[in-house]
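Researcher: Go.
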Amino acid sequence: MKYQVWTVIAVALVLAVGAGCTQNQDGTSGGPSVATPAHAAALPDSETIAWVNGTPIAKAMLDEMIEQMPPFMKAQVESEEGRRKLVENIVNVELVYQAAVKDGYDKKPDVRERLERVTKQVVSAAYLDEKMKDTPEPDDEAAKKFHAENPQLADKPFDQVKPQILQMLARQNQQEIFEKITNDLKAGAEVRYNDELLKAAPAAAPEAPAETATP
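Model: Structure:
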């Protein structure tokens, strides 16, 4: 059984604020750290929330992580106990990460391939965030227009569905900008598709062998 649930949650929280290469307090390389950005190696104690085998975990990273949490999660870390639990999770992830690097897991081909996919996602997201930062937010007028033009919402008061409408309109705006960005990029790029493979039907999953009754 693969160990997934806690790892996915903890690593996702950490990767949300980025990763980099760090140094241990003695100046030796600590390798690429999951828990701390590169500049944290030079941080003073007053800006470091914890150390794991000399690798510092920056308080600024923790603050940014909390800031990016949804409200229901943020409320859980407002207390000292909640923040300590979060830091303990980060420490645990860093310990596992260091052990994995020590055993060479970061050199495994399948791991490097997955890291490359994550890197592409993070870099692409940063690029799109910058391109979309000036996207206008939908206003009440646009939301009321949408509400009026969709009969299925007629039996629901506008104020009740307004947040969902605004959220949906914002996603539509972002999708339109995304399509414009990708269309502009395609106009200056060479993109080829393997039509034969696209036409091919996906291979059927092998059937599980039938269980035989034992006497």
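Model: Residues 135-188 form one domain.
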